[in-house]
Design a protein that fits this description.
homodimer, mainly alpha, 10 helices, disordered N terminus, DNA-binding
Chain lengths: 256, 256
DNA sequence: CCAGAACTCTGTACAACGTACGAGGAAATG
DNA sequence: CATTTCCTCGTACGTTGTACAGAGTTCTGG
């Protein structure tokens, strides 16, 4: 019942997937005219995922939404995994805002904040395990844009890659927390605060869970819980983490 | 077919889950003697997950392994989601090594490395979305241990929480990459390098994917690809990221 | 000592899922 | 116009978690 799914990318035949991602035209068509396009399928799937999460993107539901039988989708897309690939690359296409030219700190901050917002607009993006990123145009452009934030910074290629990866990892981790809280609240009908209010008294009945056994955890935990209104505050963690990372990178650059 | 699943924690009734986590004895039993214990179920499920991933932890397979009918498991565990909670807390119990006393940098490094190793020992841990962490003894102890690494550091409670969270997030993100590479290699029969060798020629046929369109990405991408033997090197990203984060935190502390 | 309550165990069943397979029909080519 | 090529779809299989009801076992109250 309580099951959500994470689709793995890079499942199927690389050739076909890449061709789909880049929209290669293919040989002249002979049979009946297609009712749909790949873009239709991707758009509908994305709409479903935005509204009801990635688990709503089933072949049956997408087909229903398009007024078509489930098996018809396989004309446009090799399978479910490839559909997810296409959705991912498509969403990356939204990252087009120009970066500030007031220095790499501002630019990298903009990269992080744009991504933070993208993940909140399309929370299902973080349910995808991008072990092997889809080699699509928008994903390439995303990486290019991220690297351009560090134009002129005196770091070698490996360091540039590592810095970008570090910032992206921070956004993904903290955004995941932020989004999961919303998702769980909707799914269980309990906000974080309500859930804690319900859990705390149960914990209080358990002798071993006494604050004396976990002095630091209970001190820091209650302080954090009071400061924010939840068990943790992902947005605060995001801002704090970004500041530390940028400071750390600054130190690395200045050491040159 | 190509489907892996991520279980969500905190799904069911908090009371029952917490009682299971802490092993409260319960009222005197009247019926026939149970064949199993909750610990048996958790141990078997963990063994399956270690061997074949979280998707192998189905009620049917766990029951099979225990020589019992699937529905019998529901005597011990309210459902699949709660079983995952129990597995998670149980695995956290492995984090008991003493931390170095040579300063908070060493201690925090040890925390990160211990976690890195735990995730590689139990890769399925990263398939679990810990939106609401299981309130079990080992998860509490884990947090307490992590905070203890910062004993004596002049930071307030919110900062302590944020620092710990930042380091853990780094480990999770990079370990996820490291583990997904292994998982995908096993599942698809292709290593990262082989997969790239197969994808590159396809990409080369696509005009729009020319290096001229993505100058930074292709320069950094090929440099990184040559330096490590794969598209990305999670362990390098882990070490690099940890160094930057520790530097950033040092700066924050010294600014006091 | 024994009736009944309480508990464990299990077989069957249902609604999902992705998708393999093959049939039927539409469009373009020779 | 015959043939090839492609789109569309109905059916079917093997998965999953688990609701439900029945059968059997053990302890308790009288």
């Amino acid at each position: 019942m309580t099951r959500m799914s994470t689709e793995y990318t890079g499942g199927g035949d690389p050739r076909r997937t890449i061709e789909l991602l880049w929209g290669v035209p293919g040989p002249p068509r002979r049979g009946p005219k297609p009712k749909l396009t790949v873009a239709d399928v991707v758009a509908t799937a994305t709409r479903l995922a935005d509204a009801d999460g990635l688990e709503a993107v089933t072949m049956r539901r997408v087909a229903d939404e398009l007024g078509v039988a489930p098996m018809s989708l396989y004309t446009y897309v090799p399978g479910h995994a490839e559909l997810i690939d296409l959705m991912l690359d498509h969403a990356h296409g939204e990252l087009t805002a120009e970066l500030p030219t007031t220095g790499w700190r501002d630019a990298l901050t903009a990269v992080a904040e744009d991504l933070w917002r993208l993940y909140h607009r399309h929370p299902w993006l973080l349910q995808i395990t991008t072990g092997r990123p889809p080699l699509g145009p928008n994903t390439f452009a995303k990486y290019e844009r991220e690297l351009s934030a560090l134009d002129g910074v005196d770091l070698d290629e490996l360091e540039l890659d590592a810095v970008v990866s570090l910032v992206i990892g921070l956004v993904q981790g903290t955004a995941r927390g932020s989004i999961d809280a919303v998702r769980l609240a909707r799914r269980s009908g309990l906000t974080d605060a309500e859930w804690w209010e319900r859990s705390a008294p149960v914990l209080a009945e358990i002798p071993a869970a006494d604050a004396a056994n976990f002095p630091r955890a209970s001190r820091v935990g209650t302080a954090a819980g009071q400061a924010h209104d939840a068990a943790s505050n992902p947005e605060h963690h995001f801002r704090f983490g970004l500041a530390r990372i940028l400071d750390g990178v600054t130190l690395l650059v200045e050491r040159r």
